[in-house]
Structures are given as C-alpha cells and as structure tokens.
Amino acid sequence: MSDSRAAISSFVAGHRDAAERFLAELVRTPSDNPPGDCAAHAVRAAALLEGFGFAVERHPVPQEAVAANGMVSCVNLIVRERFGPGPTIACNAHGDVVPPGAGWSKAPYGAEVRDGRMYGRGVAVSKSDFATYAFALLALKAAAAAGAKLGGTVELHFTYDEEVGGAIGPPWLLAQGLTKPDYAISAGFAYAITTAHNGCLHLEVEVGGKSGHAAEPAKGIDALEAATGILAALYQLRKQYARVRSRIEGIVSPTLVIGLIHGGTNTNVVPDRAVFRLDRRIIPEESALEVETTLTRQIHEFGARFSGVTIEVRRILLALPFVPIEGQEKLVAAISKNARAVFGEDIPARGVPLYTDARHYGAAGVPTVLYGAGPRTLAEANGHRADENLELDDLHRATEVVALSLYDLLSPRA
C-alpha cells in the first residue's frame, strides 16, 4: 500500500468517534418528509460541516417549487473541494426521511448505540452517507495536505426531497447550473455497487358514480363496486407482470401494488366516489412513458365494463428507471477493488428494485453508481421501518472504500 493510501486508511480509523458523533447529530435533528420542513436540518448539517473546515454553499429552493413538490422548506447543500485540474466527482445523499411511525423499541431520534449499532430514523437511509462522504473527503484532504498528488474536484451534494421524488434535489441543482459533475456516487449500501434500479409510476384513479339510498340501491350507481372490479382486473394484470423478466441481476419483474383506497360517504348511502392509488415499478428495460400510457388505457377499459361510471386517472409520480450507461465501469472498478481489500470479499455490481436520486444524475448523462454505508439488504437495516439501524463498522469500512476510490479516480495515473 502506498504512503498516501495508508494515510487515508489511518485517517478514517482515527476519526471513527468523530464520524459517529456527526451522524448522531444528524439523526437527532428530525427531517421527516412528509411534511417536508427540512430547512432546519440543512442548517444543522451545514454548521457541522463548517466545523470540519468545509466551505458550505446553501441553495434554498424557491418556495413556489417547494410547495409544488408537497414540502414546506428545502435547502440543498454543496461542498466543493478542488485538488487541481481533472474530473469532478459528486457524492450525493439525502437528508429527508420518512416519518418514524409506530413500533419503535428505541427513540427514533435518539441515535442510541447498542452492540455496535446506531438506531434512529434515517441512520441508514441515508444520513449515514452524509458521514461516509464527508469523512472520505476529509481523509482525501488530509492525504493531499501530506503530499498526495491529486487532480480534480470532489463535490458533496446533500439534498432534501428524495422521499417525495427528488424533483427539487439533484435535478434542480443540475438545471440551475450549480453543478456539472463528470461522475457521481449516490447513497447506497456497502456490500453491493448498484448500477441500475427500477423506475416507479404512481397513479391516482378516481371512479365516479351516483349516490342513492341504501334502501333503493338500484337508483344509484355504485362507484365502489366499479372500483372493486377495476382492482380485481389490476390484480390479474399483476400476475402477467411476473412473466416479464429483467436481464439485470438483482431486478426481477415489474410489480404493481394498490397502496391506498377510500370512498363513500356513509354506510347507508350508495357510494358515488371511490379513489385508489397504485404503485407500478418499471424495470430498466421498459419505457416509463409507454408503461404509463398502456396502464392508463387498461384502467379505462376495465372501468368501461361498468355502466354509468366515470374514470379519471392522474399521475402522481413518474420516476424513470436508472439504467447502466457508459462510464460507470470506471467507478465500479475503483470501488470493487477497494471494497475487496477493505471487506475481504468480492462486492458485486447489480441492480435493485428501489428507485433513488441516482436516476437524476444518470438521466443527465453522468455516469453514476450507488455505494455507501449499510448492510446487504434494506430489510437488515429496517429501512423505512421501526428500529432502523446501522452497524457502525459498516459506516467506517464504507468510508474507507469511498475515500480510497476517490483517491484512485483523482490520481493523475487514473
């Protein structure tokens, strides 16, 4: 191992406590989305980062765009460290989190550490990678100060709207011309390098009928009956999706889930309205717009079987799949080499059925992968569930992998 690489590893090992304290402070500062009042977390994160000597740019999103995104406040953060001429690598993590919900055995904002694990909402998804990327960059700065020859720039992009689609996070930074990276690493887990993921379509379907007295139901038009028929047809359609297979390891088939439904006005009234929302996951081989067009047409066809009802279909969200693009292989090579050395095992490159902010960089033509702190699966971390947790050794190992990979990518010989 070269002196510079050894210095990077030593820095990470020597700053474990500082990284854990930083992460704990982020977890203790709530940033639930919804409701999406996340500016206070950005203020706290920026202050902590400035305490490490970083110059932190604060980029408030205009209130009109924030409200259109269903949020209350949003401030994106950028840290830039230039080591000389060369490529710009962005490291992106999101600080907004889903609300904690019920069932916790530990305080969701307590950042309690027990048996080597830290517990709290967002500790794994993805406040952990604020720490991963910040301390990887600090290690790189320390190596450069000690004489390591580096060229290029590392940017930290800490954004706050991933849980509601990401429209005013990375794509807003890119559209505003605030960043133009050559490569990007997005928040991920430590035991795999993600090179592709599913897209997602959320639709709201409103079925209209005509109210009537329950004593004379024939004089009404039952919207809930029609909605039930449409749902039954969608569940049959879901079985067909299982026959479609992705070629990407880690991604299986398109999926469909009905996640919300409500309707009617009272028990003794024929319901004149029923509304449901569905989640359709889109594999990388599919066209998102074609999926939306086809599914919308099918819903109207299913509804046409019921006389007198009206059908309205509204898009709530369309997240494009994250697809492999040329240039990823350089990131994969660097991360897989260093992960093998740090973890003592091969770390595969694969896809995942989730959707993330990485897709925004990919859509802009930026070669991107997901890699960061965390276990082998989201379920192991209780991501989006009670008792979300992170094994702290994985945080430190992932930080070392990212720091060494950035060193390799920014070394003049790279």
Question: Can you walk me through this structure?
Answer:
The protein is an alpha/beta fold and 414 residues long. The protein folds into two domains: 3-197 and 321-410, 3-Layer(aba) Sandwich (Aminopeptidase), CATH 3.40.630.10; 199-319, Alpha-Beta Plaits (2-Layer Sandwich), CATH 3.30.70. Helix content is 35%, strand content 24%. The strands form five sheets. The chain has a six-stranded mixed beta sheet with strand order 1-2-6-3-7-16. A four-stranded antiparallel beta sheet has the order 11-13-9-14, with helices on one face. Helix 1 (3-14) packs antiparallel against helix 11 and helix 5 crosses helix 11 (392-410). It starts with a helix and ends with a helix. The relative contact order is 0.19.
